[in-house]
Amino acid sequence: MTDARRVLGAAPNGQPQTGPGEPILRAVNLNKSYFLGEVIYAVDDVSLAIDKGEFIVIVGPSGCGKTTLLSLLGGLDRPNSGEVLLAGQRYSRLNENGLAQLRRNQVGFVFQFFNLISHLTALENVSLPLRFTRMSRRAVRERAEQLLDMVGLGQRASHLPLQMSGGEQQRVAIARALANSPAVVLADEPTGNLDSKTKNEMADLFLRLNEEFNQTFVVVSHDEGFARFAHRVLHMRDGKIDKVEAGGR
Amino acid sequence: MFFVLGFTNARRNLGRSVMAVLGAAVAAMIMTSIISLSGGYPAQGWIEARTFLGADILVFATKHLVGPEDLRPDKVQVVGGAAEPARWAMASLSPNVVCDLMTLQPELYAQGFISPGGAGARPIDIEDLRRTLSGDPRITQVVPSFFLPIRLTYEYVLDDQLYHAELPQAVLRARDFTVQASGGLDFGQLLVGDSRCPTPDEQHGLVGLLDASLGLLGYHPPNPDTPRLMVWVPAVSIGADGQVSYDFLRETAYEIDLVGQYATRTGAVSWQTPKGDYMHEDLFWVTPQLQIPAGAFADIWAGVSGGMPLDHAVQVGLRVDRLAYVEDIATELRRLLPAYSVVSVPQQMELAHVRGLPEASFSAPIEMLGGTDIPQTGLPVDLSRTFFVLVCLVAALLMATNLLFLVSERRKEIGILKAIGARGTDVALMILTEALTLNLLGTLLGFGLIRILATWTMISNRIPIAEIGRATANDFAVVMSAAALAAALFGMLPAWQMARLTSMEVLRND
Ligand SMILES: Nc1ncnc2c1ncn2[C@@H]1O[C@H](COP(=O)(O)OP(=O)(O)O)[C@@H](O)[C@H]1O
Ligand SMILES: [Mg+2]
Which residues of A touch B510 (CB under 8 A)? Predict the structure, then answer.
């Protein structure tokens, strides 16, 4: 693996500075409900603050609102009320394009089902977020190659997702999530679809990225592997964070 | 970059893209053929037919697609009964009309394309022609036309005064009135007043029918009390070169008993005057023609030609049942009979004449008569209005389903793109790019395929290359913009939908 620090340092988008002790991601009284015959409070008055470099794990039974919370934190969805702030930016002040820009520059997503674009190669998938920027094609290519190297897939650059294993696909997805040096990486059950050996590799990769680059992570996962590395483990139930534990670190 | 994504997507999902392209191609083919059929060919066919008519042999088909105006008993017989309330029907000319080439092509006659045995006409040996054609089941009838140029003198009465009149350039024409006896000839429709047809017994009688519409040319009708005409027929000879010549210095006079007058209605015009009155006027085919029984004609011919048998016609029509054979037969005959000019009459041409080409001497405003191309465009315009809209709708729907399928297949991909920061407009742009690319590609393909055929038809109809080029460019523009419009319209809806889609809807339940 190449010098990952140099790779992440080469990010085109400087992250907004945050003062010492200032949390990079904050949620204030977040609410999100759905109406399906009756009202479902998917996220119920959640407030939290996450510091830069923190590794947060969220656990909770199925349907308790974990995915919904992540989508609100990542600006994929709008809350009914409450506010999210990422590196000082209030989501409620951003219009749709502003939110898209925020997702592009400040947020990295990793999903349970990898969600790579099936007709693009690994390299093209990783390049995708970079191609929104003004970077030259060559620079994009170089950086995407470095990112793939970093997740140990330098040799698979020209492979299509279907030609790769689940673990490999997920690593491509992680490389993509990191492409724009986001302020925070949000991962929704990133190992939910992987076998146990790959699960551990994945957890190790997250840990390495967190430790070496001080990358902030919010990971929804029931994996022991993740809980061991976490700074904090948030327990959710019925849309609320009902317990906060210290993680294995 | 979203253009690039659209393209990449189209390329990598080749199977699906090919389907979309083919769908668009089919749509374009439908549109192209309807355009090619409705616009270019008939209009052009008219111009072309005119430049090369004047032929010795005309090959024509007898079935037409006709409009309601043509479904009149005196003009056509509706296949399956005249009472059929069909808007459009396959019809054939009544046998009465069809056995008369000049009736079939009155305008061509008026323009001098069909010469009634004038100088330079080359007679056609009918028996020879029959032998040449023998056994060709596609030709249902050989219709020879016999004419002689004549001078007519007669008496007429005006204000109780008797005058002598001369019609210096009339035509004597042979007609087979015996068909009437078998019930096949419906000449009564064409007769005026208390006229009658020559009977079969009068096969060799010097009796005849004169065109009643002559009055429209400024001639007074013959005196009804002494309905006698003097027919002055020039001496006929056929030179060694096969050319017919007429000697007007050696005329023979025949006295013909006029048993009636006929009128050939070719159409009608209705219009509104500036004062708001509704006017109606029948239109007639006007020729200075005297029709006599075929036997009598043969006798006169023998008299003026010094006993030559009447086996050479000035002009021959070949009746073909199916339009599809017409071009083939004409081409074959041109090869078989290099001495004669052979011309096919495109269906639309023929229909134009069936519908009647009015004379300028009528009182209807000239715009109503509209020159020679009103009947010509009548059919294609009527057809294209209805069909074109319907077909375009079908084609557009085909494209729309194509595009909807294309887009719905990509909900997930769009969700991913939005999650990593694509804006709604980016996504819409991507979808539109792909839709337009595939659609236009398919349209190009479909247009090309059909147009090759259409161009071939046009070339074989001897339409000038420049004209073909212009028509092709025109139709290309129409089809392409219709396709682009459809792609934009029907791509817009799904593109907009997808642009509004939030990623979570796509990514949550997978
Ligand atoms: N689009 C939606 N419409 C209606 N209900 C929804 C929708 N999305 C999620 N929910 C409901 O919100 C609750 C939380 O869902 P989710 O955040 O996916 O839970 P988790 O990820 O913890 O399993 C569930 O009860 C779910 O049924
Ligand atoms: Mg979930």
Answer: 112-113, 115
